[in-house]
Amino acid sequence: MLYRSWILAALLLLTLAGCASTGGTTDNGGGDEPVDPTSDTETEAWATKMYGDARVYYYVKQGAQGVAGAAQKEVRYTLINKTHSLYRGLPDNQLRADEYYISNADMMDMLNGLRKKCSFFEISREIGSRDPFKLALSQPYNQTERFLAVEIIKGGVVNCAYFPRQPINDAVLASLNEQEKERLRYFTDAQNIVVFYTRYALPRGTSGTGGGPNIRRNPR
Predict the structure, then answer these.
(1) Most exposed residue of 12, 57, 208, 214, measured as fewest CB within 10 angstroms of its CB?
(2) pLDDT means per 10 residues in the chain (220 residues)?
(3) Angstrom distance (rounded) from CA 24 to CA 102
(4) Three-class DSSP category at 86
(5) Are 151 and 81 in contact (CB under 8 A)?
């Protein structure tokens, strides 16, 4: 509960501050004015004050049902705020294949959208410092087909809000009660917000890799 109290307080502070700013991304998923990326938002001090270090995870297991029932490949994204202390000074070409930097302002907008539109920090469960990928892979497929997670490190404390989803088909959908259907809608809304922000992941450079010029903005 302490984790949720300080993250909600930090997000509320940004909501009040963000209302006076303009610019930023075109859609933050939460209805607030986006944070102005030309302000001091890309400094370590700003991010530390507002939310600390943040990583947002999105994972879909191999074989999950995609469009028209087709089995899809594994999907794995980790969005990391630009000034994250654990990655400070690490060139983007040294990140794992699933990892992408995102501006501090976009990270704040995304967290705000998750809080406001789908009550993410209320309906998810806290897993502390556990690795959400390892947790999902340890769970049976019929329990966890995909997940969303938000890890916050603030004041030396690591907390991760974890929101899994089971496979969904017509039979499963028909068996859900209203509370479970509402939870599914929240997951879908949260998934849409996170996938939207993958479009704003900073492009990977190829300096020192022999790969020529920078690859296109959205290498997906």
Answers:
(1) 208
(2) 42 35 41 64 93 97 73 91 94 93 96 96 96 96 95 95 94 94 96 96 70 40
(3) 12
(4) helix
(5) no
